[in-house]
Automatic annotation (TrEMBL), chains A, B:
It is found in: Cytoplasm. Residues 4-120 form the CMP/dCMP-type deaminase domain. This is Nucleoside deaminase. SUPFAM superfamilies: Cytidine deaminase-like. Its cofactor is Zn(2+). One of its GO terms (cellular component) is cytoplasm.
Amino acid sequence: MKPIDTAALLAVARDEARTGEAEGGIPIGAALFTAGGELLGRGHNRRVQDDDPSMHAETSAFRAAGRRPHYRDTVMVTTLSPCWYCSGLVRQFGISHVVIGEATTFSGGHDWLAEHGVRITLLDDPECVELMSRFIERSPELWFEDIGSDATARG
Amino acid sequence: MKPIDTAALLAVARDEARTGEAEGGIPIGAALFTAGGELLGRGHNRRVQDDDPSMHAETSAFRAAGRRPHYRDTVMVTTLSPCWYCSGLVRQFGISHVVIGEATTFSGGHDWLAEHGVRITLLDDPECVELMSRFIERSPELWFEDIGSDATARG
């Protein structure tokens, strides 16, 4: 099997993030692929669009991929370091490899996943950083809501 | 505030699990409450009913509760020890307390949650054990699918 083109996979997730931004939502996108690069499902955060707090980008892509007997040799690509919720998804379902656009604006559970044997590829993509930076500056409260960061506790 | 009646909260989750069983689905139920016992959302596993692998009982209850600015002082009650996916949900959103029907038929991430400051109440409820034992005996492959347990790797 030829080496996986992680930049090409990230482009799919980034397109999803941009679609989310254009819809007025949280600009995080993700997609699930086979190790051979076949697309299984793609999606973006749908908190705003569907009033659904459970649809982070990764869960949205996972859902779009439908029911599968296992996730051995699948690759989750996401524009942003996965939060604990989405990291838990990866660990529970045994997704083998996570490709991450950036972990500069937010760092979730990817080190924990690496400790548990998940291959992590962090791409430090400037366009992903720009998308999130713009969003967080524009809508900080929406961002804090999406990651369950308590405004009161932040003081 | 009077002490929370964890058995009464579990009864709501168990009703959800029984509804799931009656629908031909995976009999796991959950509900999200305030610390004062107000119901915010309830749900059950919907893998079979909606062909949706992302709707575990806890995510289903979380979704039903709708968008909230934070989850401080909320209680997640579930008939079964939360898997990594659902444990990640609890940690990310800062849910304070998890009430668990049983951890005999499956043990997920509740010790990890306790290490990270989440209050855990394990009730060892025989009806929850019976519901899951019956299901796993009847439909082992469906159960393994729901927790991403790879039949090939199991040998």
